[in-house]
Amino acid sequence: MNGHLIHLPRYATTDAPAEQLHTERHGDAPYTGDAPVIDPHKATYTVLEVAYLLNLSRGVTYQYVKDGTIPAFRVGRRWVISRKRFAAWLDEMVEVGA
């Protein structure tokens, strides 16, 4: 990504400014769990792996997956993210932000 910023939507549910709410609710918290072991031979990522790769909290990553910001699909009760679609989406986000 070489220093490019990716602008993702903020979530607001009250009259407070969106920036303030996002910081209060999610604290722009980076990923805080253990580093997942990402198998380079899998065709998909889990939500936890994408959270780690984007340095987002798990909750914010789930919000982005559920609202379609991050391309994903359900397999049973699990969300999975295609590596190819994720890479294309990420490239597109960098181009839009450039």
UniProtKB/TrEMBL annotation:
NCBIfam families hit by this protein: excise
Domain Helix-turn-helix positions: 45-92
Name of the protein: Helix-turn-helix domain-containing protein
Alphabetized Pfam families for the sequence: HTH_17
Lineage: Bacteria, Bacillati, Actinomycetota, Actinomycetes, Pseudonocardiales
Molecular function per GO: DNA binding
Lineage: superkingdom: Bacteria
Native source organism of the sequence: Amycolatopsis mongoliensis
